[in-house]
Amino acid sequence: MAIIEVNNLSKTFKVKLKEKGLKGSLKSIFKPKYKVIKAVKNINFEVEKGEMIAFIGPNGAGKSTTIKMLTGILYPDKGDIKVLDIDPKKERKKLAYNIGTVFGQKEQLWTHLTPYDNFKFFGAIYDIPEVRVEKKINELKELFELDEFINTPVRNLSLGQRIRCEIVASLIHEPKVLFLDEPTIGLDPVVKENIRTLIKRMNKEYKTTIFLTSHDVGDIEKLCKRVIIINNGQVVLDDSMENLKYHYLNKKIVEAKMKEKVNLDDEEGITILKDKGYNLKIEVDTKKRSVADALKLLNPDNIVDINISNMPLEDIISTIYKNEADK
Amino acid sequence: MRKYLFIFKSELMSNLQYVFNIFVGFFGYFIMLFILFNLWKYMYSDPNELINGYNMSQMTWYVIITEILWMTLGGRKLCRKICNDVRGGNIAYNLNKPYNYIGYCLSGHLGSIAIKGLIYTVLGMIMGFIFLGNFPDLNIFSILAVLITGILATAISILLITFIGLFSFIIEDANPFYWLYGKVILILGTVFPIEYFPTFLQPFLTFSPIYVVSYGPAKLFVDFSFGTFASVLLAQIIYLFIGYLLCTLMYRKGVKNLNVNGG
Asked: With an 8 Å Cβ cutoff, are B5 and A120 in contact?
């Protein structure tokens, strides 16, 4: 059974327009003009229990608006949402008891208090008996390795430690669905990896459904088995990570170091990505040309070193964004 | 209820960091009272003389209490916070938490000013005693009555200021409305008791928030009677209900049309 169901969901915003200069400012007071922005246009998708799903898209694509509608923060203009069979528009409070949210760019912890006091606070907010809160804190403290700083005021924690505490705070009430909006933003690669491991562990341990938005391809690749790409308010792709990669595996990246300079131009199936004289980076579309053809063009005797790789996921996603924007 | 006690407690714990700032802030309170004390001394040729039913000691204590209530309140900070929350979209993040936003504002702000209220009350009493050399006639009932009505007065003020702050849903910035509210309370409710104003104005003031947010507790402190206590308490309960209702209606209307872009 689907734990999240979204049908024909739409949301528009009215944005005030202002002409430039003082005249424009005065005019906007007496005769305000508005522009209607269609942030989300008729989207549909379902998420199964225990899934870790990446919901991604470029800035302004409508992903945060969708998350806010799923969590009951915004009212949709049209369409139906069911999260755990609850309509966020009608039963926001009931939904709140069953979901957790972490907004990477928005602190929900009290900075002057310690993580422990914060967790106690969240336990009280969600009406959890004291004994159960204590037990849950101890359990999550182990899982997220918080022992070292659980009694240090949040304002004195590093960003990585704070994000770990933010996630723990959102898990105190044992939510069935966790919405993570850019949880690793601003973190260094080591801490990012650590957070990803912890999220994975949590998903495995508690079977929590995870709905993740991130601009970080590493988060998506390492955590999620399914990806939904949204652009201009519409779902442009809803597929498994495996399929996504498979469809783009026809594109190979050939990086070669040459003995002598080679003059190559774009031709069917071959795109020059970088040409620095002795160093070349080309993309080969294997549906149109074979890698062997590309190597012949380079002249194998002239090659000092070569690396042939699949297209990085980051590029795959950028290509999808770009293709949709060009449509 | 437990969650609101926790919100109160968390704000209280957070604000313990600023105890020193509270003492610094008290300096302003001291100056204000010193000026008013000297003004009353000048006005009253004889300290036992009655002007509009108040002697000099009662007038000074009246101002000590109203100023404690006003300066403890931190209304500007509360209004600015709510305005910023509404304009910046931060208010949206409270929506998916299982608490009532109005209850959150009320218990949170009460928690943030509790220490300040306690310090100002103790220091205000000491100051009053140093200036006047006596306390008004008090007993356990009157002290309890002043405490209860003082806390209720603060709660009503918080609700009224929350209501003003929530106006940001309709207009861009509600802070000027708070400025106006602050000046009305200061002029009509803090320095002079209602009896000092022209007769035609007194009924209006009695039914206005001034009666419940400043006059009531101060009047009970300087001239306690069970009759006054009952009428102040009744008016406060009505105002609490009205304030809560207004805030809830404004909040519900506002969040329905809430636009939170970006992310």
From this structure: no
Digit-coded pLDDT (tens) for A184-238: 887 788 888 888 888 888 888 888 899 998 888 778 888 888 989 888 888 988 9
Question: What distance in Å separates the CA atoms of residue A165 and residue A153, rounded to the nearest whole number?
Answer: 11
CA distance linking residue B11 with residue B91, whole number of Å: 18
B7–A13 CB contact, under 8 Å: no
Which residue is closest to A12 within chain B, CA to CA? Answer: B259
Q: Quickly tell me which residue has 């008090």 as its tokens.
A: B138
Local confidence band at A74 (pLDDT 50, 70, 90 cut-offs): confident
Instruction: For chain B, give every domain's residue range.
Output: 2-256
Question: In chain A, what are the domains?
Answer: 2-7+42-245 (3.40.50.300), 250-310 (3.30.70.250)
Q: Which pLDDT belongs to residue B164?
A: 94
Cβ atoms of residues A9 and A85 within 8 Å:
no
Q: How far apart (Å, rounded) are the C-alpha atoms in residues B137 and B134? A: 9
User: Which tens digits make up the pLDDT trace of B160-197?
Assistant: 999 999 998 888 788 899 999 999 998 888 889 999 99
Under an 8 Å CB criterion, which residues of A touch B? 13-15, 39, 63-65, 67-68, 71-75, 92-93, 95-97, 99, 101, 103, 105-106, 108, 110-113, 117, 120-121, 124-127, 181
User: What per-residue string of b and e applies to B34-59 under the rule 16 or more CB within 10 Å gives b?
Assistant: eebbeebeeebeeeeeeeeebbbbbb
**pLDDT band at residue A325 using 50, 70 and 90 as cut-offs:** low
